[in-house]
Every structure is written in structure tokens, then in C-alpha cells.
Amino acid sequence: MYRLTNSFPYLLNRVGVQMGELFSRRIAGYGVTLPMYRVMAALWETGDQRLGDLAAMTTIEISTLSRLVGEMKRRGLVTRARLKDNGRTVAINLTPKGRTLVEELIPIAIRFEEVAVRDFPSKNISDLKTILAEIYESLKALEPEIEEANKARKAAKSKG
Amino acid sequence: MYRLTNSFPYLLNRVGVQMGELFSRRIAGYGVTLPMYRVMAALWETGDQRLGDLAAMTTIEISTLSRLVGEMKRRGLVTRARLKDNGRTVAINLTPKGRTLVEELIPIAIRFEEVAVRDFPSKNISDLKTILAEIYESLKALEPEIEEANKARKAAKSKG
DNA sequence: GAACAATAGTTGCATTCGCAAATATCGGTC
DNA sequence: GACCGATATTTGCGAATGCAACTATTGTTC
Hints:
Two copies of one chain form a homodimer.
Chain A: H1 8-27, H2 34-45, H3 51-58, H4 62-74, E1 78-82, E2 90-94, H5 96-117, H6 122-138, H7 142-159
Antiparallel strand pairs in A: 1-2
Chain B binds a DNA duplex through helix 4.
């Protein structure tokens, strides 16, 4: 018998939401939100990104990210500038202020992760990370059948 | 060197967001959103729930859930009624219509999960689920240090 | 049994979000 | 080099979200 509470997406989402909520509260005093942290940490790892790449890296929808980056620029955390040689793309980077801040926050993130996984041997955790990364790739296989199912439904609708 | 993209919350969130987005698109034709599905699947597993319990089970914030349940009631998917013996709590249940619908959707959820995990031996997946469930519990350990850090910060602020 | 605290849920309000449309630039074609 | 499709980002707008304040009911204390 199927149980939601034993399903993979449920267990995953629950941990994700909860970690996000706790981390948000932890960093609120620094004046940044969780999405802002994600953007800064992504830029800290890989600087000079285009908006679309940053969206893919952070899994933040692109229009949401556009506004978020605007706000972060206003606060002096990042820079955003059109490229000279290609005016339709922008390059986003950390400012020194943004860099200093994210380097304060990363140890907190490390601490959180450490508490989350400390009951398990590190081998299990690194396996788990590998699995998560591969599952992410596997999900691409679902795309076509989503299209197909929706197409079928639409066709049935217009006929009936 | 720390990398966001190798951190546990990042890998987790990415899979969670992506699965949610794909599943949303898959079920959109049935006229329900992902949060609605979560509520229905939770009620299918454990019926007759109070709002607060349902919020805990689904990790949906309680005021959001209150409105969501209202909308679902309006659509005839669930019932919501104050208890006779305790007027401050409500009991939420699936209607026959809601039950029929969720029983159509659950096989789709099963299918998605199957695709997600099919590259791994089921032992690994069940281990992974166990770990996710235990990590969720471990996170409670972070609560006190969040309070403490924020208290410390507030004290420093009022002094300086 | 009146007063007050605690529990459960709902609603006001400002913010965030995401889709779709609009804008801006680039690359190719004639 | 004007036109058209493709690519990259931004913006308009309605819906969803979450905190805090509010309402309603129950439990407790004197």
C-alpha cells in the first residue's frame, strides 16, 4: 500500500523545507534571505555568471532571480553589468561586501550540514550525495512523458 | 574548499524543486496544484486530521494551509468541520470526489518515483529514505543554537 | 463561576513568486 | 544593411505565501 510519508519526494521535501526554514532564521540577523545566500554562495563558487546560468545553478526561476539580483545590487552585494561584446547577456559578480558576508555565512552552512549528517558514516553521506546528483539527471527522462500526457489530455478534450 | 554544489542542502533542494516542478506540470491537467495533491495524499494515508497535524505532516505553513483547505473545500475535494466536542479544532477529510481524484494521481506519483530511483538498487533507496527520515529528526538539534545566536546578536546590538 | 492563560484556526497585509508578454540584442539571409 | 528568427533579460500582473494580529473556544486558578 502506498504511503505518502514513505515516498521519496515527501521525505526529501520535508528535509529541504525544514533545513531551509532553520537556516533562514539563523541568518536573518545578517539581513539576508535564504535565496540571497544561495545566490552569493553560487557566485562565491563560480563567479562572473550570466543570469540564466545562475538560475540553472540555483534552481531559482529566472524572473524571480532577475528581481532578486536587482535587490542584491541595490544593497551592494553583487554587481550586474551588460557585457560589452554581447549586450543581451549580463555578468553578475560578488562585490567585496558580498564576498565578506558570504564568507561569514558559509561556516554556518557547514555547521548545519554537519549537524544534519553527523549520525551517519561519511561514506553513506557521500554515497547519498552521489545518488541525489544522479537522480537529478534521471529526472530529465520524465520530460517527454509529461508533454505526451498533456497532449493526450488536450486532444481528448477538444474531441470530447 | 567548500562548494555549494557539493553541499547536502543544495543537492537536496535541487532534486526537490525539480521533482515538484515536473509533477506539477504532469498533474496540471487534472485541475490540481502540487500542494493540493500533497494534502489529498496525506488525507488518503491518514484521514480525519486536524489542521495543525496536517500542516506538520505536509510541511505547509498553517495559514497557507488554512486557505488552501478552504479552496479545496470550495472545489468539493475535502470537508472541513468543527468538532462537536471541541469547537476550536476542525476535522478535515477527503470527499468521495477527492478520494477518486487522489487515487488517480497516486499512480503518477509512484511512476515518477520509480523513474527517479530506477538506476539504484532498492537497498540503497530504502537506506536513503531511512537516512532522510533520521536527518529530519536530527535537525531539531539546531533549534537551540538558532535562538542562542540570535539572542547574542541582539544583545550585542543593543549594547553597541 | 469570573478572570486569565493556553490552544486552534483564520484573516489582514505586505512580500514573493511565476507565467506570459514585452524589450533588447545578436546572428543569419536576401 | 533591412528584415526576421533566436537568445537573454526584464517587467506586468495576478496568485500564493508567511508573519503577526485577531477571533473563538477550552482549560485553569482563585
